[in-house]
Write a sequence for this structure.
């Protein structure tokens, strides 16, 4: 039933992945798409950022056969919270394709999987369930290395004909071109991964404040630099 399934991943934490996931969801919802953010993070940051109850039943319940009610964050924008139960042995024991199976009947135009950093079994659930992956990295060398590992995992699955995202791109986050590391990041990725699209989300305090105020981005500041960057990413996702 879902037209598009997007995984937002970053093997390293602190690179703005949840900000991108929630901001992109807000942009897509503003275009009339019915969007569900599926939070795969035990910390439930996506639900918190979108102003929903992060302790409500959510993704873990869905994976274990329940029918949790998505929480409405804005018109056309819904979220399933993550939560500590995602760290349970029952979730760790799931087959990598189980998330893809349980979301198949959900009646939304777009699903966005907010994958947690550093928890590979949860990240894998999102990447396998997705048709598109956006891999976030900033200019920190460890972030770039982590993003590269995600790309390599996706390539291996694709080469083996396994279920999972068949299209992906880098999202360069918190970019300030006055910084030398940020200036060289796109070129570095282009040299190492020449066939992988690169898109930029510039440093923008509006993104941080929207998250802090728990207001979806397109309700907080729809004409900000960060919102415009995410609109371009939305176009790539929808029209690629």
């Amino acid at each position: 039933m879902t037209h598009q399934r997007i995984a937002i991943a970053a093997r390293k934490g602190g690179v703005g992945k949840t900000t991108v996931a929630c901001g992109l969801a807000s942009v897509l919802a503003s275009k009339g798409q019915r969007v569900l953010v599926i939070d795969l993070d035990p910390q439930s940051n996506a639900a918190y950022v979108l102003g929903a109850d992060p302790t409500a039943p959510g993704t873990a319940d869905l994976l274990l056969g329940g029918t949790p009610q998505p929480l409405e964050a804005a018109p056309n924008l819904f979220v399933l919270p993550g939560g500590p139960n995602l760290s349970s042995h029952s979730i760790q024991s799931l087959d990598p394709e189980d998330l893809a199976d349980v979301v198949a009947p959900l009646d939304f135009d777009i699903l966005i999987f907010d994958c947690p950093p550093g928890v590979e079994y949860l990240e894998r659930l999102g990447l396998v369930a997705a048709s598109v992956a956006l891999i976030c990295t900033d200019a920190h060398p460890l972030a770039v290395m982590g993003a590269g590992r995600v790309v390599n995992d996706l390539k291996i699955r694709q080469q083996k004909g396994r279920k999972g995202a068949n299209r992906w791109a880098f999202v360069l986050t918190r970019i300030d071109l006055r910084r030398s590391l940020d200036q060289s990041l796109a070129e570095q990725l282009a040299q190492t991964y020449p066939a992988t699209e690169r898109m930029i989300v510039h440093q923008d305090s509006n993104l941080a404040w929207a998250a802090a105020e728990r207001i979806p981005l397109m309700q907080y500041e729809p004409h900000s630099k960060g919102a415009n960057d995410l609109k371009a990413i939305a176009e790539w996702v929808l029209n690629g």
User: Anything to note?
Assistant: The chain has a mean pLDDT of 95. The longest strand covers residues 167-175. The chain is about 45% helix and 20% strand.
